[in-house]
Known about the structure:
The complex is a heterodimer of chains A (114) and B (109). Chain A has 114 residues and is mainly beta.
Amino acid sequence: DGGITQSPKYLFRKEGQNVTLSCEQNLNHDAMYWYRQDPGQGLRLIYYSQIVNDFQKGDIAEGYSVSREKKESFPLTVTSAQKNPTAFYLCASSINWGGSTEAFFGQGTRLTVV
Amino acid sequence: AQRVTQPEKLLSVFKGAPVELKCNYSYSGSPELFWYVQYSRQRLQLLLRHISRESIKGFTADLNKGETSFHLKKPFAQEEDSAMYYCALWGGSQGNLIFGKGTKLSVKP
Lengths: 114, 109
């Protein structure tokens, strides 16, 4: 089954802990993205990667970190520095980083801080 | 600044009625615009893009550069059209894929 897989679907974290969200794609896409989705806020870009071994900050990168060591993987770490981490996180990929390229999305991970 | 505005959080219509979901953008160059849709319990997916000038599931969207708008239209709404709709803008070489806050469309029987 091709596409983007995010895991886990639900994640609970204690305050002060770091947590890593997984995103894997088998579409052979160069570009990958992380968005945060909050009610009434739409999708806000956290980080993006145009190609393996490269990534750039998006609009709300503070308190987050990423890596892109493999083309198919783009994990997102939510650090304890993120003040309001409870949210729905979406990973996406596109064949390349460019205008008319369609973005394919994962099913999302809902993170709750307890 | 690049920005996408969807003024309506919720749009409720009856089956068979026309639908127009509004989208306005702010961008200094030639924009590339998209509509994405998220049906209940499904992942976000591309509905259509302006460059293709296509009609998908009866929906169309025309880019109006004078009004900086990219409204999504359908002449006769169906119950299965109920979903969350996001307008998105590609921000060019210095930008990225920017989304509006979304409009929830509810089509009543």
